[in-house]
From TrEMBL:
Keyword flag Kinase: yes
Biological function: Catalyzes the phosphorylation of the position 2 hydroxy group of 4-diphosphocytidyl-2C-methyl-D-erythritol.
Pathway(s) served: Isoprenoid biosynthesis; isopentenyl diphosphate biosynthesis via DXP pathway; isopentenyl diphosphate from 1-deoxy-D-xylulose 5-phosphate: step 3/6
Assigned keywords, A-Z: ATP-binding, Isoprene biosynthesis, Kinase, Nucleotide-binding, Transferase
Residues involved in ATP binding: 94-104
The protein's name in its UniProt record: 4-diphosphocytidyl-2-C-methyl-D-erythritol kinase
Active-site residues, as the UniProt record annotates them: 11, 136
Pfam short name (any one): GHMP_kinases_N
Organism: Spongiibacter thalassae
Annotated NCBIfam families: ispE
EC number: 2.7.1.148
Length: 280
């Protein structure tokens, strides 16, 4: 095997409660990461030499900040291997949207290169490496829709009804770091049990702050709420609503206001990446 074409699925946070803050500044949270069947596509080609090349362009992302290249270098350092690769991405997920695009790209790079280079690292080792790149990389390595605690890395797979989602992106990016460092962020939501989530007693601790800071997010929430209950995913900027079937979600997509973008996707309990690589 010398090349792989692999999916990098998006996620949405069905809810997000910030329950505290650790001494190192990271926030303790509870969330439900719902994987979607929509995302970027990563292309990996092995090379005869040890060069690592990224052949696509990502606006605003340099070689040293590119999460895909950081993942590849981290994997080489950790395993001590000197294999090379040409890497390209077909980017469809908006950046700074709270749908985990960069993290999913990094997770696919870790799992894909582990496979291509036949390193034999376990999923647990890869999830630990992934956590060094971002708090929501491990869920994409696990490849399951999951309940998360800690800073997002303590994961319990959970099967949710595989509903259809319309994800709406207002014309702005939200930097996760900006929201987590904001003095007005709600950091003391009481921890809940899974049962409370299933009863619908949840929200997003970032939503009120983000809609105040970003009027475009506020507009998107108000617009989508006309059709179905709308919520922010992660720290935004995307908002979403769920539907019983694809045609109901698509009908809302067709009404989307000018200046906004969006997509319809199905919630999946297992990552399309894991299906492609045939791993558990
Ligand atoms: C909070 C979530 C919910 O899904 O937000 P989104 O990024 O998806 O919007 C994610 O877990 C984010 O994951 P990720 O985007 O990988 O975060 P990182 O790169 O690790 O951290 C970005 C910034 O957020 C802060 N951060 C992140 C996660 C966390 N539990 N507490 C934090 O305080 C970090 O201090 C850092 O300044
Ligand atoms: N391969 C990558 N794809 C997307 N974003 C990347 C990548 N590498 C680095 N980044 C940086 O990570 C930031 C967050 O991206 P992303 O994960 O898509 O958003 P979010 O954390 O809101 O879900 C981007 O604004 C970008 O600067």
């Amino acid at each position: 095997m010398t090349q792989l074409t692999l999916p990098c699925p998006a996620k949405i946070n069905l809810f997000l409660h910030i329950t505290g803050q650790r001494a190192d500044g990271y926030h303790e949270l509870q969330t439900l990461f719902q994987l979607l069947d929509h995302g970027d596509t990563l292309y990996l080609h092995s090379r005869d030499d040890s060069a690592l090349r990224f052949t696509s362009k990502l606006p605003g992302v340099t070689d040293s900040t590119n999460l895909i290249m950081r993942a590849a270098r981290l994997l080489r350092e950790y395993s001590g291997c000197h294999h090379g690769a040409d890497i390209a991405i077909d980017k469809v997920l908006p950046m700074g949207g709270g749908i985990g695009g960069g993290s999913s790209d990094a997770a696919t790079a870790l799992l894909g290169l582990n496979h291509l280079w036949q390193l034999g690292l376990s999923t647990e080792e890869l999830a630990r490496l992934g956590l060094q790149l971002g708090a929501d990389v491990p869920v994409f390595i696990l490849g399951r829709t999951a309940w998360a605690e800690g800073i997002g890395e303590q994961l319990t797979p959970i099967d949710t009804p595989e509903r259809w989602y319309f994800v709406l992106r207002p014309p702005c990016e939200v930097a996760t770091a900006e929201i987590f460092s904001h003095e007005q962020l709600t950091r003391d939501t009481s921890p809940i049990k899974i049962a409370a989530f299933l009863e619908g007693a949840t929200g997003n601790s970032c939503q009120e702050l983000v809609r105040r800071l970003y009027p475009d997010v506020d507009k998107a929430l108000i617009w989508l709420d006309q059709f179905a209950p709308a919520r922010l995913t992660g720290t935004g900027s995307c908002v979403f609503a769920s539907f019983d079937n694809k045609s109901a979600a698509t009908a809302v997509l067709e009404e989307m206001p000018k200046g906004m973008t969006g997509f319809v996707a199905r919630g999946v309990n297992r990552s399309p990446l894991h299906t492609t690589l045939d791993i558990a």
